[in-house]
Design brief:
Blueprint: E1 4-7, H1 23-33, E2 37-40, H2 49-55, E3 58-60, E4 66-70, E5 85-88, H3 100-108, E6 112-115, H4 131-152, H5 171-188, E7 197-202, H6 206-215, E8 220-223, H7 225-230, E9 242-247, H8 249-252, E10 253-255, H9 264-269, E11 274-276, E12 287-290, H10 304-312, E13 320-323, E14 345-349, E15 354-357, E16 364-367, H11 377-388, H12 392-397, H13 411-414, E17 417-420, E18 423-424, H14 431-436
Parallel strand pairs: 1-2, 1-4, 2-3, 4-5, 5-6, 7-9, 7-12, 8-9, 12-13, 13-16
Antiparallel strand pairs: 6-17, 10-11, 14-15, 14-16, 17-18
Length: 437
Amino acid sequence: MSNFIGIRHEDKYVMERRAPLTPKHVERLIKNKKLDFVVQTSEKRVFTDEEYIKAGAEIANDLKKCSVIFGVKEMPESFFEAEKTYVFFSHVCKGQPYNMPMLRKMMEMKCNLVDYERVIDEQGKRLIFFGRYAGLSGMINSLWSLGLRLKDAGYTTPFSYIKQAHHYSSLAEVRDVISSVGQEIAEKGMPEELRPFTFAFTGYGNVSQGAQEILGLLPVKEISPEKLLSLKRRSKLPGNLIYKIIFKEEHLVEPVDENEEFDLQEYYSSPEKFRSTFEKYIPHIDVLINCIYWDAHYPRLVTKEYLKKLFAAGTPKLKVIGDISCDVNGSIECTEKGTEIEDPVFVYHPETGIHTMGHKGNGLLVMAVDILPSELPRDSSAGFADVLVNYVKAISDCDFNEEFEALDLPRAIKSALILHRGELTHPYQYLESHVNS
């Protein structure tokens, strides 16, 4: 089998334009590591075929000559070839039912699967990720959504100058725009009826940090969740400040047993022993940016039942939810679907429990784009490849015909090897029941 490395074109979404390795990184690997690349041709990828050719790669319609293939998102079942190695975000670690047929096919074809999501250090921290760029794009889109919503409500604010993230050519361009919005808020303030204006962030990891990076271009003052509860609507607080609140786990949940104190490790290990306390903060929030990890074991933060009560009492302060985490019917239960870049927002109507696409209508505006980093495809691909480039040669040189224990791979990559010659490796054998069902 040849040792060519393939870069697959992305086809899961119309607006998916990212690449796992940029032409710059490919050129570096060709020159410094003497590797050979075949890049699958693509008309929509943010990096053109010509850029990869100049970097020294071969362009082809297929990747049949490649033994190792890198991608970004899931690959169709028909794409896999026997005994090859595939590196991508497989989204199978939670036993996601919609990807079990793909995993089953890879097992049948005796493939090797390395999942970026599971490339972690000894502390369990992810090493290769798009999270920061999801936060950056998600915050840009949330500010854009806010501008639409405030304009619909009759308010004139500089948020209306902001466009959806993918309309900007670079992160630098959008920074300039949002900085000018921040300058106008600092000089003129927010409408009195909207004061104090608050942004709440759930989570404090890479995604949240990326989102806060964008909000930081505005005149922001950070306050505690406790302080948020004492802010009065239409108060005499300065109107030229935006208030930011970061919610950690201890602010979001409490033990069901009132005699117990909050313990973070117990929450992670036994989330069923906890209940959400977030509802008491929601009436004080204008924009909620959701950045937390969630699965079905954890309590929800915003339920449909609560939103129905909130809206029945009158028009609430809460205007926009930027659900960057984008877990459908998850921590934000009204996230009815992950949206596409070309149709990014919907209004959830609490009284009926339905949603309508677009930003018009009574209810709560939800931004839940499923592939947010692809709205900044050039910047996010470069940031991702800056880390991935360090592992490409090791993956390419590895003889996957060896027994698992003998595989010459960096520890972080070996921990991310979900399939080895079509068999689930030991850390992922729990997926067998999901595959069979």
